[in-house]
Design a protein that fits this description.
Low-confidence stretches: none
Strand content: 15-25%
Number of domains: 1
CATH superfamily: Tctex-1
Number of helices: 2
Oligomer: single chain
Largest sheet: 3 strands, antiparallel
Number of strands: 3
CATH architecture: 2-Layer Sandwich
Radius of gyration: 18 Å
Helix content: 25-40%
Shape: elongated
C-alpha cells in the first residue's frame, strides 16, 4: 500500500541545503528592485516615509515564497544626504546555521537608502 512507515517523524529542525536562505541571490534581487524602484520613484524630502514603506513592502512581497519557513524582517532607512554621519546597528538572537541577513546601501545625489533584510527560520 505504501512505502511510508507509520509514525515516522517528519519534523524538520533545519532546512535542507537547497532550501536555506541564499544571501547572494537575495542581495542581487534587492539591488535590482532598489535600482528599478528609484528609477521610477524620485526621492523628495516630503515623501521619504511613503517611499521607505513602499520599498519595504515591495522587497518583502518579492522575497516571500509560499513554501518557505523563513520569517523576514525588512528594514529600510531612507534619508537626505547633507554630509551627516549615520550609524545603523542591528542585533539579533539567532541560529547561525540557518538564519542569515543581507545588507544593501544605495546612494543617490540627494539621498541615501540602507536596507537590512533578516531571515529567521521557523521550526
Amino acid at each position: 500500500m505504501g512505502d511510508e512507515v507509520e509514525g515516522e517523524n517528519r519534523y524538520e529542525i533545519q532546512p535542507s541545503y537547497e532550501k536555506r536562505f541564499n544571501s547572494y541571490l537575495v542581495k542581487k534581487l534587492t539591488e535590482d528592485i532598489v535600482e528599478e524602484f528609484f528609477a521610477s520613484n524620485p526621492y523628495q524630502v516630503n515623501n521619504g516615509d511613503i517611499l521607505a514603506q513602499a520599498l519595504a513592502r515591495k522587497l518583502r512581497d518579492s522575497l516571500i515564497k509560499s513554501d518557505s519557513r523563513y520569517k523576514l524582517a525588512v528594514n529600510v532607512y531612507l534619508g537626505e544626504r547633507k554630509d551627516q554621519k549615520v550609524v545603523l546597528l542591528c542585533k539579533n538572537f539567532w541560529d547561525t546555521w540557518v538564519d542569515n541577513y543581507v545588507t544593501y546601501n544605495h546612494f543617490g545625489d540627494k539621498y541615501f537608502c540602507s536596507i537590512i533584510i533578516s531571515a529567521f527560520y521557523l521550526d
